Amino acid sequence: MIRVHRWFSTVTQGAIVAHLARYVPLRACPRRGAMIEHRVRVYRSAEELPRAEQLAWTIAEVAGDPVEVTDEVGEMVVNRIIDNAGVAAASIRRHPAIAAREQALASPAARGATLFGLGTSVRVAPEWGAWANGVAVRELDFHDTFLALEYAHPGDSIPPLLAVAQHVGASGEQLCRAIATGYEIQINLAKGICLNEHRIDHIAHLGPSVAAGLGTLLEIPVEVTYQSIGQTLHTTTTTRQSRKGAISSWKAYAPAFAGKMAIEAVDRALRGEASPSPIYEGEDGVLAWMLDSPSASYVVPLPAPGEHKRAILESYTKEYSAEYQAQAMIDLAKRLRLRIEDTEQIARVTIYTSHHTHQVIGSGATDPQKFAPDATRETLDHSLPYIFAVALEDGSWHHERSYSPERAHRPTTISLWRKISTVEDPERTRRYHSEDPKEKAFGGRVEIEFENGSRIDDELAVADAHPLGGRPFARADYVRKFRELADGVIAPDEQELLLDRAQGLRGLSSPELLQLGFHAEGLDGDHRSTMGLF
């Protein structure tokens, strides 16, 4: 049985296990060796589904496996902590981040988590710290991504894991192990179970991955993690309307909600409360009624006991603040700009890309808001025609200037924007879904036709910053991105302290872990700029 860490007594551990044994009798998992292909289908209530064969239990076992983090994975965890801090700094004064932070400040705690922007002097309840920091990280849609059957921003798991680590006094090494688990589960769920086809939001994979990461962090029994996963999935399976039509700030709040729900679920499970079960496979469960119906069948790859958690290495960050499928197209627009004397002479632009890109951020979405100058920033960063038009005109991209109302209302931009359409290319759809990382690609081919009848075309399979791109992101690029986004927000000496702490993550003590946050210059933590209930 997995050891419950020092902040839970052995008496508490025994009580929890005894209580949950009524729901899930203890049994060791015998598997050892290669990746498990966990097959998932719907079971009628009259059918017997042993606990060890349930997906939530297998995920909990992965979380409880005390395998060490490899150096390569540990270094990538550091990169993503730096990346999250930078994008949070850039959004710290934006309204959604302010509102979430002020909600969190209503729940102060003697221990608790720190809040991005307020340094180490202010601490709040961990679930609210996860909420506020999660919104700050996601607000600009500028951190890491993974794309497969489903898509994910696995870096969304870091704020809730960091918040609980700070609350319980964990070390940097323990946090590193937890983050590796969070990425492992979310990425492998995204490989095996498609949510967007059924218009379910991808936070349905994020919630269970955070619950699993917390299981690793706290070293709690597999039974407790299992119950936490079930509760979290049950409360975070929501529709994709948050990313459709007129997209609102809830797009930033949704992942923070999943992290907050996971923390609360773990707390309940530690107190002996159980979850709906089997949560994935039940005849009235997620697979049967929210995904592929009672005939649903999926295969989710998961590491076997003793196997290193390496999935984070398959994810990739963003060089530009836009939906990931637009990253390569921004690079391509910048390249094409060098070949075009006058963009006003363009008659038509056709982008050949994958089904997912065409349907989600392209003209295949049939959302008129994606062509509206008055659309929200959240809508524009999910509009490939808008993004390509601005990048082609400017030959550059900026996380604020490229989305400003003045920029979106520029007459030449509106004219070009409405000349751009996307088309699904079956070969690019195949490559998008390829399981071979050397073949998997998210870019496209562009044909530009001019008023005089001449044409130019070009294509790009992956973004330049992608691991297989023209200039893959390395530690120096993460640090550069952080400095650019933190400029004018975090004092230079504090930037250096945060970078030093992050790069020494695995050796950090509990007090040092508090310094993975930051203090924003001129940010008054006591000021309330929004009105609410608390």
Task: Give a nutshell description of this structure.
The chain is α+β, with helices and mostly antiparallel strands. The protein has 2 domains: 20-314, Orthogonal Bundle (2-methylcitrate dehydratase PrpD); 324-460, 2-Layer Sandwich (60s Ribosomal Protein L30, Chain: A), CATH 3.30.1330. The protein has 21 helices and 10 strands.
Task: Give average pLDDT, whole number.
Answer: 91
**How large, in whole angstroms, is the Cα Rg?**
23 Å
Shape: globular
* Fraction in helix: 40-55%
What is the spatial order of strands in the main beta sheet? 8-7-9-10
Give the DSSP E fraction (strand runs of 2 or more residues).
5-15%
CATH topology name of the largest domain, in short, is 2-methylcitrate dehydratase PrpD
Low-confidence stretches: 1-33
Q: How many individual β-strands? A: 10
The largest β sheet comes out as:
4 strands, mixed
Instruction: Count structural domains.
Output: 2
By CATH reckoning, the class of the largest domain would read Mainly Alpha
Class by alpha and beta content: alpha+beta
What count of helical segments does DSSP give? 21
* Name given to the CATH architecture of the largest domain: Orthogonal Bundle
End-to-end CA span: 41 Å
